[in-house]
Amino acid sequence: MIKVIASVLLVLISIALIFKLFGFSKVIGLQVSENEFIAGQFRYQVLLLLLTLITIIALSILNGEVIDRFLSVGEISASAGPVPLFGIKEGESWLSLGLSLSFFITLITVVFMYFQVRAGGISMEPLMSLMGWVLLFSLTNSLCEELIFRVGIVGALYEVVSPESLMIISAVIFGLAHYSGMPGGMAGIFLAGVLGWLLMKSVLETHGIFWAWFIHFLQDVVIFSGLTLLSLKSSAAVAPN
What we know:
The chain is mainly α. The chain has 8 helices and no strands.
């Protein structure tokens, strides 16, 4: 029980620290780009990677058997449990399900970000020169969040609560963590909560993070692309004539 309590506290502290990382990153004198959004994200991602590494190492010490079981690609073609609400049938392969979820969830994100960018009258052309940064941030951010919000929660609670409870816990925590995200507010909580539930389901049923990381990565590519474009407009608005 002591290990469980310590593991839960560790994950909760790690999640709380994520919200402080942007503040901490401002004291790092590292400027990799003239674009302040890119530079700020780079500093943030460095700290996020460090926090994630410390968290996973600590969880491995506390509950290495569970962490080792899920800290892998997993069985990407494993059978999925039925969820009629989402059209998931009994015995459906996670290979087909993962691809379907990747497409439809990403499509929803694309539509949302498109209208955000279009409302600002922003051209897509400048994005190409910054796409390398977008892909890098998407890879690191999605990996770190999956390791903390999915593997971390599994590592702390897998042996004490049911899989259904783990999916609910993941949904609640992931949803609340994105209150100020893109999108934010109650809509952001709901959408991130549903995503968190589905991603935890994939981790538990495939015993790995491949689908969770891949689906999350695709969303981050769209979101970081939109945020990068919006940051270019903000920079232009404050640039001297």
